[in-house]
């Protein structure tokens, strides 16, 4: 690949050829109002303080939210996916949230091939919508779900079931009750218009469905059992009852960690398992925490857990979640087309890169960094190293995650002299460790 004129880079004006570079990405680090609610402001950060005060002329603040990373408005907070897309590509692309907004507002979403595919479930099939109930704008948005519900009913769906995932991560813990009530109000309007619309199952995002990078398939299995099989440890007659009762039983329970539950009718029968002939849409626009479920729904030869039953359905994602894997096969909105990323440029110029993170962050600096593309550009010029994340341990119990292990691996790679560039992504603990390299 080396030598392609399209990718030829001019010599850097300040960095001489052969100079080694380490790029450390601190996910979640930023500057905001320095008050008692600002964790970074309150934390002891001697290395960052030293870098900022000793070389202020080199200290730069970059926007990582809103239009600066392709989001709809300045009110939209950034996230790992859009940030790493922008860093890896070196330019701004209109992101999923903006594309979905435009498609819903214009009605184009209902004219595309994806929704036409889903409509093959008519006239008798149920439409199932699966995704995060939130207005955080990181993975999904409440207003988009409400528009999709109303639009789908107008398109002819007379039976709709929603499988909710509670947030408490991108929005305040405890806000799930508000969002469920908003959803119930919308579903009530649809019922008045003759559409049988109900919530069918639920659970917290970290316990149900929204794992990523194949860290823990049990999280996806929890969702499959509830949503497809109609089986879960807890059964309630309404979602609001479920959230309130589970919280009463465990007052310290965070919205992220609600256990899976199923909504049942008066006879105790689940109101909405996914069956043959139904349509399914995962309405999250962000890819990383939908890919695993998409594989389970889309791949007949799936073998990560026993699905028990694999219904013949019409499945579409809100967007194409993985362009390299063409996953899912059908989607409602075309994603941003990101090409000519930094990794591709470096490979074409013979630059050797070593990349590392732990499982739950690994795709950020590989898949997302490379423009939502799986795999490496070169097996000889790139090396991707994944440190397995701990399973079943919440981040509040283990906030350092695998920072030390990643730092040690990165130091070893840097000292080896084999690599022109070392890239790693983790939390702020890395800086303290890297000071000793």
Describe the structure.
- One of its GO terms (biological process) is response to carbon dioxide.
- It catalyses: (2R)-2-phosphoglycerate = (2R)-3-phosphoglycerate.
- This is phosphoglycerate mutase (2,3-diphosphoglycerate-independent).
- Residues 101-322 form the BPG-independent PGAM N-terminal domain.
- Belongs to the BPG-independent phosphoglycerate mutase family.
- This protein is of the alpha/beta class and 437 residues long.
- It folds into two domains: 5-92 and 338-434, Alkaline Phosphatase, subunit A (3-Layer(aba) Sandwich); 96-333, 2,3-Bisphosphoglycerate-independent phosphoglycerate mutase, substrate-binding domain (3-Layer(aba) Sandwich).
- It has helices spanning 39-42, 46-54, 80-89, 96-106, 113-118, 142-154, 176-192, 217-229, 239-249, 291-298, 342-348, 359-362, 364-368, 403-416, 429-434, and strands at 21-26, 127-133, 159-166, 196-204, 234-236, 261-263, 279-282, 314-319, 331-333, 353-358, 382-387, 421-426.
- The protein has an eight-stranded mixed β-sheet with strand order 5-6-4-3-2-7-8-9, with helices on both faces.
- Helix 6 runs parallel beside helix 7 (176-192).
- It starts with 20 loop residues before the first strand and ends with a helix.
- Mean pLDDT is 91; it is low at 427-437.
């Amino acid at each position: 690949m080396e030598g392609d004129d399209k990718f030829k880079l001019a010599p850097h004006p300040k960095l001489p050829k052969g100079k080694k570079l380490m790029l450390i990405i601190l996910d979640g680090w930023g500057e905001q109002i320095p008050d008692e609610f600002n964790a970074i402001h309150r934390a002891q950060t001697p290395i960052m303080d030293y870098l900022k005060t000793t070389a202020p002329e080199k200290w730069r603040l970059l926007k990582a939210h809103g239009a600066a990373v392709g989001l709809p408005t300045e009110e939209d907070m950034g996230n790992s996916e859009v940030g790493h897309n922008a860093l890896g590509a070196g330019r701004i692309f209109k992101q999923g949230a903006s594309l979905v907004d435009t498609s819903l507002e214009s009605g184009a979403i209902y004219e595309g091939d994806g929704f036409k595919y889903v409509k093959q479930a008519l006239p008798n099939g149920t439409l199932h919508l699966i995704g995060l109930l939130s207005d955080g704008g990181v993975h999904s948005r409440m207003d988009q779900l409400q528009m999709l519900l109303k639009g789908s009913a107008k398109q002819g769906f007379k039976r709709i079931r929603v499988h909710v995932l509670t947030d408490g991560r991108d929005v305040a813990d405890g806000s799930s009750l508000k969002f469920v009530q908003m959803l119930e109000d919308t579903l009530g309007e649809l019922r008045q218009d003759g559409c049988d619309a109900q919530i069918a199952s639920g659970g917290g995002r970290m316990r149900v469905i929204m794992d990523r990078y194949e860290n823990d398939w049990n999280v996806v299995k929890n969702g499959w059992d509830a949503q497809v099989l109609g089986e879960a440890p807890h059964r309630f007659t309404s979602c609001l009852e479920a959230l309130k009762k589970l919280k009463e039983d465990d007052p310290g329970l965070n919205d992220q960690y609600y256990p899976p539950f199923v909504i049942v009718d008066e006879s105790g029968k689940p109101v909405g398992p996914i069956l043959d002939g139904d349509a399914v849409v995962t309405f999250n626009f962000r890819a990383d925490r939908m890919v695993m479920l998409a594989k389970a729904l889309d791949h007949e030869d799936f073998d990560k857990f026993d699905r028990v039953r694999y219904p013949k359905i019409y499945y579409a994602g809100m967007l194409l979640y993985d362009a390299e894997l063409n996953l899912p096969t059908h989607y409602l909105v075309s994603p941003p087309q990101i090409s000519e990323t930094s990794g591709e440029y470096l490979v074409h110029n013979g630059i050797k890169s070593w990349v590392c993170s732990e499982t739950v962050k690994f795709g950020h600096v590989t898949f997302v960094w490379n423009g939502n593309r799986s795999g490496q550009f070169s097996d000889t010029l790139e090396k991707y190293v994944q440190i397995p994340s701990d399973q079943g341990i919440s981040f509040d119990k283990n906030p350092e995650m695998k920072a030390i292990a990643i730092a040690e691996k990165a130091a070893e790679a840097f000292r080896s002299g084999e690599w022109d560039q070392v890239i790693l992504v983790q939390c702020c603990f890395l800086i303290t460790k890297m000071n000793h390299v």
